[in-house]
């Protein structure tokens, strides 16, 4: 029986309940974080909590608890549920109130978190995954890690229906990001990823990967690239908290490079794993 945490209490997952009047349910009025657990420890929890604080600020919500408390809760969920490799999910909604779109005047945020095992070091996807190109149907504030994610649900369902692992979302021919990941390409030895803006989420793994690339003097440019450039790239890969660095070896019907994980991708994945160990 797994334990989760909801509104200040650790309870069995089956006993955790959220009201039908919770604004997270009614409006997707909330934000969330997903952090990896590796060798039983949370990875970059401080960075995830800093991003949560920013997301909350952007939607005019106070912090539901101190970051120290949330950190303790997240680590404790990993430990008590015996998670060696996996993730902790944390969500904050504006809380329960009569259905009315503007913010309620008095409302207590709902907060919950749970943990799940997931293979991270021996991920079979490290052999390479395929992506499916879809239009990016999202809103204008993709920098907020919002729980309103119907566009990503549709994008990732289309990707799955196409027999691929992830969506490659594009707008006007330019790649924005994956359904739940940051996308990268390598061409002639230079690694490219889209610069930060309200068009994409500021991925924590993105930040770490950039720092790792700089550490080993890997040429890297933060510049948007087109779907055509991705298709013609030497390497393509994705990053996220729960995937680390994964090679993309096919974009729809086109094989990327020689169809196997490229040297830059492999080097970054290894560097990421080394840092996590
Ligand atoms: N998603 N872009 C989007 C749209 C995302 O949802 C995510 C993460 C990322 C990568 O961010 P990070 O490196 O901080 O995980 C980029 C999480 C993993 C999810 O929704 O499950």
TrEMBL record:
This enzyme's EC code(s): 2.6.1.42
Pathway named in the protein's UniProt entry: Amino-acid biosynthesis; L-leucine biosynthesis; L-leucine from 3-methyl-2-oxobutanoate: step 4/4; Amino-acid biosynthesis; L-valine biosynthesis; L-valine from pyruvate: step 4/4; Amino-acid biosynthesis; L-isoleucine biosynthesis; L-isoleucine from 2-oxobutanoate: step 4/4
Annotated keywords: Aminotransferase, Pyridoxal phosphate, Transferase
Keyword Transmembrane: no
Record-stated family: Belongs to the class-IV pyridoxal-phosphate-dependent aminotransferase family.
Cofactor or coenzyme needed: pyridoxal 5'-phosphate
Phylogenetic lineage: Bacteria, Pseudomonadati, Gemmatimonadota, Gemmatimonadia, Gemmatimonadales
Enzyme class, spelled out: transferase
Domain of life: Bacteria
Protein name: branched-chain-amino-acid transaminase
Biological process terms in GO annotation: amino acid biosynthetic process; carboxylic acid biosynthetic process
PANTHER family given in the database record: AMINO-ACID AMINOTRANSFERASE, AMINODEOXYCHORISMATE LYASE
Catalytic activity: L-valine + 2-oxoglutarate = 3-methyl-2-oxobutanoate + L-glutamate; L-leucine + 2-oxoglutarate = 4-methyl-2-oxopentanoate + L-glutamate; L-isoleucine + 2-oxoglutarate = (S)-3-methyl-2-oxopentanoate + L-glutamate
A single MF term (Gene Ontology): L-valine-2-oxoglutarate transaminase activity
GO cellular component: cytosol
């Amino acid at each position: 029986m797994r334990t989760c945490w909801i509104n200040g209490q650790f309870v069995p997952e089956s006993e955790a309940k959220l009201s039908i009047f919770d604004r997270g349910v009614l409006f997707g009025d909330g934000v969330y974080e997903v952090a990896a657990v590796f060798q039983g420890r949370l990875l970059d929890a401080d960075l995830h909590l800093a991003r949560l604080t920013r997301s909350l600020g952007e939607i005019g919500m106070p912090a539901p608890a101190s970051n120290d408390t949330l950190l303790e809760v997240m680590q404790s969920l990993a430990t008590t549920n015996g998670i060696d490799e996996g993730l902790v999910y944390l969500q904050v909604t504006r809380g329960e109130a009569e259905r009315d779109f503007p913010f309620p005047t008095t409302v207590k945020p709902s907060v919950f978190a749970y943990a799940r095992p997931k293979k991270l070091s021996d991920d079979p996807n490290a052999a390479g995954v395929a992506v499916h190109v879809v239009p990016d149907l999202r809103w204008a504030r993709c920098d907020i890690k919002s729980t309103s994610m119907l566009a990503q649900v549709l994008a990732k369902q289309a990707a799955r229906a196409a027999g691929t692992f992830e969506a490659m979302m594009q707008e006007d021919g330019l790649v924005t990001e994956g359904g739940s990941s940051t996308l990268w390409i390598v061409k002639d030895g230079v690694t490219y990823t889209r610069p930060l803006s309200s068009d994409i989420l500021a991925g924590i793994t993105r930040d770490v990967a950039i720092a790792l690339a700089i550490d080993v003097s890997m040429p890297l440019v933060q510049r948007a690239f087109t779907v055509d450039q991705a298709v013609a790239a030497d390497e393509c890969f994705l990053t996220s908290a729960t995937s680390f660095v994964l090679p993309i070896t096919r974009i729809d019907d086109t094989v990327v490079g020689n169809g196997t994980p490229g040297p830059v991708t492999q080097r970054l994945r290894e560097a990421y794993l080394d840092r996590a160990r």
